[in-house]
Amino acid sequence: DMHGFNYGSSRRTSFSSTASTADYLQTFKEPGYSFVGMHCIFDCCKGSAVTVVKFGNLSSDLLAYGVSDGRLVVCRVTEPPSILHQLEGHSKDVT
Question: Taxonomically, which superkingdom (predicted)?
Answer without folding.
Answer: Eukaryota
